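Schema walk-through. Below, the input block comes first and the output block second. Nothing else is stored per chain. Lengths vary across the set, and this one has 462 residues.
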Amino acid sequence: MSATITMVTREDIDRMMSSVGGVQGNCPTEAPLKSKREHLKQKSDARVTGWTDTLAAKRKAKLDWKADKARQDEEQRKVQDAKDAARHQRVRAVTLSNADKLIREQTERVRQFRSQQMLVDTIDTRDRQLEEKKARRKSEEAMEELWHLAVMDDLQKAEEKSKKETEAEKKRSLDLAEDLSRQREERQERIQLQQQAKREEEVLMIRKISEDEAKKEKLELQQKNERRATAKLEMEKNQELLRMRQEEAQRREMERSRKCEEELAQRNRISKARANLEIKHFEEKQAMKKLLSDRASEELKQRSMRECEIFERDVKNKQERERQKEEAARKKHERERADIDKSRRHQLQAKVKDREAERELGELYAKELARITSQKQDLEKRKEIDRRKANVQLREQQRQQIVANEAARRSRNASALAEEREVFQQLAHEDDLFRQFVNAEIESYKAAGKRTALLERATLRV
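--- output ---
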């Protein structure tokens, strides 16, 4: 359950006491009681002032907190207002500075200085491009030199390799020819030994047969002729067979020699054809390189010839234009000279006529002047008197006007002098600002390593 708190203030207590006192009437103890009550109230109030959990203390703390909060907010607003004012002042100063810069940028000398800056930047960029081009050209020339050295090295290696291969092939061919010749000699020696052995065998056989025939001749005298004829036939047959065998062996030997020679010739032809093919390939490569170099040189020659022709044509055209211009100028000068001579003759004729007319007119004028002079003398006398009077009045007016004009002139001169001083001061201030701006730009260009001679020259001109 929630407890209900009933608050009774001091006014309520006084009101209740007064109502009770009014009902009971005047009491002799009322004054001491009232003083005691006030004393107790003062003690209670003094004791209550140190309490922090009372409603009055909480209300006072809340009011103090609100006052502190309002004071802090006001101080923060003042600080923020000061910051905003400073920021607005800085923004205004920056805006005015930018406006001054824009106005200064629109002046003629600043635009000339900017154009000089653009020229300096362009020259610096061009110099940097030229240096890069030189470096790139040097690197290209170095690469061309390396490529040429590599190509020459490859060609030398290819030539050495082809020479080595040709020498090796020649050596192999010589070794093969020596082997073939040695084999042919060995074969011939072997065939000769075989033939000699066969001949010895045939001789032994013939001897044996002869001995047998001699022995049998003693035993068989009747069959001697028949056996001799038979032996003769066999001998002839054996000789024929031996001859055929020798021819067959010689034919086979010749066939083997021919095959070996053909094989050797074939290898020699192959080696020669290979060498010729390599020489042809090398010559084709050299011819192609020579063709490319000749074509490049021819193109360069034609380009230089075209450039020379264009230059000669331009020179001829320029000379022709100059000649035409000189011819036109000469003709124009002749025409002007003729016109001047013609005009001079007309002027001389007109001058003679004018002199005649002036002489006649002078005579008439002299006569008329003599007539008018007498009339004017009387009129001038009267006018002289009037003029002197008018001159006196006029001099007085002129003196007054001179005094007024002198005063006005002094005031105008003073105001013009003051305006000129202000203008000169303004121009001097602008010149100082411009010099500061130019010096800052020149220092920045010097720090960047750019040329500043043109900018300094432009500054001196300004």
